[in-house]
Design goal:
The chain has a single domain, classed as 3-Layer(aba) Sandwich (Rossmann fold). Helices cover about 40% and strands about 20% of the residues. It is built from six helices and five strands; from the N terminus they run E-H-E-H-E-H-E-H-E-H-H. It has a five-stranded parallel beta sheet, sandwiched between helices. It is globular. Bound molecules: adenosine-5'-diphosphate. Adenosine-5'-diphosphate binds next to helix 1 and strand 4. Its cofactor is Mg(2+).
């Protein structure tokens, strides 16, 4: 069996927390598909295309990473790209319940697929895309939280 993993998420926008999980996941798997969820109900700040572009820019030095998007069931996407694992990041206990629900559901839908969790580096355990957007909106310093191209894109969004 190949070692292909999918790293799904909203990535609105990608942060150093996401990047940490992606970089570490890419050391374990032969190929990692970063998959942007096209989920209209979340009302994202960045379009799917903008999010994908930012991810491509900040992961350009990781050769075994591919950036894609999907709509619908993650298990169907995993089957399509022949992935046998999903990678998710875990920050705090508060992430656990939600992740357990999704993981259990995915297991019911597609038993071959394993979900693996990578625990975040402690310096990113508070970090989320929502927090970054909140700080950026009010002009706070986000240079420690997101790569420069993402910081630039956020400044552009909140210019007015
Ligand atoms: P979702 O809406 O699917 O939770 P996110 O973009 O918020 O999408 O997160 C995608 C993945 O990245 C999730 O597994 C999440 O736990 C992980 N993640 C987000 N922020 C961090 C962080 N600071 N450290 C580690 N993992 C993170």
């Amino acid at each position: 069996m190949g070692k292909i993993a999918v790293c799904p998420g909203t990535f609105d926008p990608i942060t150093y927390g996401h990047l940490d999980i992606i970089t570490r996941g890419a050391k374990v798997f032969e190929e990692v598909y970063i998959c942007v969820l096209n989920n209209a109900s979340k009302q994202p700040l960045f379009s799917v295309e903008e999010r994908m572009e930012l991810i491509k820019t900040v992961t350009k030095d990781i050769p075994n990473v591919k950036v894609d998007s999907f709509q619908g069931l993650l298990v169907e996407y995993a089957k399509k790209v022949q992935a046998n694992a999903i990678i998710r990041g875990l920050r705090a206990v508060s992430d656990f319940e939600y992740e357990m629900q999704i993981t259990s559901m995915n297991k019911v839908l597609y038993d071959e697929l394993e979900t693996l969790f990578i625990m975040t580096k402690s310096q990113y355990s508070f970090l989320s895309s929502s927090i970054v957007k909140e700080v950026a909106k009010f002009g706070g310093n986000i240079s420690e939280l997101v790569p420069f191209p993402v910081e630039k894109a956020l400044r552009e969004k909140y210019k007015n």
